[in-house]
Amino acid sequence: MQSNEKRVTMSAVRAITESGIYQGSFFMTTNSKIRLTSLASCAGCAAKMGPGTLTQVLRPLTGQIALPDLLVGLQNIDDAAVYRVNEQQAIISTADFFPPVVDDPYTFGTIAAANAVSDVYAMGGQVLMAINLVAWPADLDTEILSEILRGGRDIVAQAGGAVAGGHTVIDTEPKYGLSVTGIVHPEHILTKGGAQPGDLLILSKPLGTGVITTAHKQETVTDDDFQAALRSMQRLNRRASEILVQAGPAVHAVTDITGFGILGHSWEMAAQSKTSMRFNFAHLPLLPGVLHYIEESCTTGGARRNETYLTPHVNITKQLSTIEREILWDPQTSGGLFAAIDPALWPSLQALTPDVTFWQIGEVTEKVADEAHVRLEVY
Q1: Residue 354 pLDDT > 90, yes or no?
Q2: CATH for 15-184, among 3.30.1330.10, 3.30.1330.30, 2.60.40.60, 3.90.1150.10?
């Protein structure tokens, strides 16, 4: 290789974590460590377009003619589209991709894939197959990309599906994700709408991945805290989804928590259900070290976009500090399932799910006339 060549090559050194996921490091030929996150302006789901801008962008599309078998589309925007093919089967279609959220290529692939297939689980379905979506710099070694794709493949296989193809374009920063196809019974679809007054609000993963991955990018995170976040992001929502589907009509609404944060995705559910919600901050599950890293200014631009859009719709008790409030806006990557359930289901849900933890974090308070009257309260 010539001395002035800028192409990045990789020498991987891997170890198996307790979760069975490979990790490693990679280097330039000069032996200086290259960090994938340094090549990205935003990390993971924090790269998402803000909810306010996205609403404006999608508005012209909502007037298109609805197909009778398109059960979920832009008329009631949800986590994925659903198309009925017969009385027993409907196809779920979704896509998700983003810039590196961690430095290790294989680990990035696993997290991006787990995040992408999560939309299928949020709809109550199972994964059939996936298509790789890749944007890649021309001067970045493709061996790094192979490791990313290997991580995605392994997660899709864990989900019970297969990677069946892909599409790759040249870009100035690396991005990876999946277009995912799933299947669900037309009568068992889980959607965002349907929350009812009196429902309990539950969550299946702790919050704080945006903060922790930012601390990772800034090289201030401890290994224990980082590993806890990795295990959470790599864990599929498959089992949590299966439990909610098995619970039947007592589960009234479901979504997954990603780039818009806990309040952003709660707002989407509340707006579609025409309800208001109340959250107990003390009941929110947090990843280890999150409040400390917020104090160290490990916050994201995505959090500010979320805060700007949501503030007019949210009442937050003055007893919460600025540090604590940051959790409410923090963009999540591969976050948990968030559901509104009949209170009568809660005792049996806890008893039946020793392998999945659900936290009760709030309740649906009242029905409202329209979206303009929806309020989220945090105390």
Answers
A1: no
A2: 3.30.1330.10
10 Å Cβ neighbour count for 196? 14
| pLDDT at position 52 | 62
- Dist. CA 52–CA 49, nearest whole Å: 8
* E-assigned strand segments in the chain: 15-16, 22-23, 70-72, 81-84, 90-98, 126-136, 162-170, 175-184, 200-203, 251-256, 275-279, 314-316, 337-341, 359-367, 376-378
Q: What is the reported pLDDT for 41?
A: 67
Q: What are the two backbone dihedrals, phi and then psi, of residue 93, each rounded to the nearest 5 degrees? A: -130, 130
- Catalytically active residues, by annotation: 45
Per-residue pLDDT tens over the stretch 244-264: 999 999 999 999 999 999 999
Structure tokens at 102: 């961690």
Q: Where are the domains of the chain?
A: 15-184, 200-378
* C-alpha triplet 344, 350, 353: angle, nearest 5°: 130
Residues 6+ apart with CB under 8 A from 32: none
Residues of the chain with pLDDT > 90: what percent? 79
Task: Please state the pTM of the whole predicted model.
Answer: 0.87
The pLDDT confidence band at residue 353, using thresholds 50, 70 and 90, is confident
Fold of 200-378: Phosphoribosyl-aminoimidazole Synthetase; Chain A, domain 2 (3.90.650)
CA distance 111 to 116: 9
Question: Could you tell me how far CA 216 lies from the centroid of its own chain?
Answer: 18
Distance CA 126, CA 89 (A): 11
Q: Give the DSSP H or E segment for 106.
A: helix 105-122
Q: What is the pLDDT of residue 35?
A: 86
Q: What is the phi/psi pair of residue 363, to 5°?
A: -150, 155
What is the per-residue pLDDT across 271-287, written as a single tens digit (0 to 9) for each? 999 999 999 999 999 99
